[in-house]
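Dear colleagues,

As part of the handover before I leave the project, I'm documenting each prediction I ran so the next person doesn't have to rerun anything. This entry is a single chain, and its sequence is reproduced below.
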Amino acid sequence: MNVGGGEDADEVFDELLKKHGKVVYRKGDSKPPVAEADDDAESLSFAVALAKVASDVKAGDIRVLFVKPLVYWTRFFIIATAFSRPQIDAIGSRIRDTAEKQFKRVASGDTKPNSWTLLDFGDVVVHIFLPQQREFYNLEEFYGNATLIELPFDTQSSFRN
C-alpha cells in the first residue's frame, strides 16, 4: 500500500477500512476534566517511581517528560542513560519488577538489552539509551515542547550539559 505508487489516497483509505473496520467515537468516550487530571496524577506518580528505580540502578541524566499534549498514545516519557548493555538490562529488569510488584503493571516492549530499550506501560513509556544512541535520537529535542517534570531526587551524573 504505497500512496506514491499509483494508488490514490481514497483507495488506500478504503483498503484500511476493509482491513481494520470503522472507528466510531461516542459522546461518552471522553472523560470529564477532573477524571483526566486524576489519571494524569496517577501516571505521574508511577513515572516518578520508575524514574527513581532507574536512579537507584545508577542510570544517568534521567528525564521525565509530560508528553500528553503532544501525542495521543501516552502521558509521560522517562528517558535515561545507561553506560553498558548489562546496565540497560539491570535498569529494565528492576523497572519491570517494581511495576509488576508494586503497581500490578506489565510492560510491553523490549526484553533483551539493546542500545535503546523501550518499556511501554501505556501511560508511561520508558526509554533507556546508551549515550551515543541517546544523543543520536535526541528525544528531548524532538519533544522539545514537552513539560520537564522536576524530580524529587538526584538524577545522577549527566552525560550532557
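DSSP finds five helices and six strands in the chain. The CA atoms of residues 36 and 48 lie 18 Å apart.

All the best with the project,
I.
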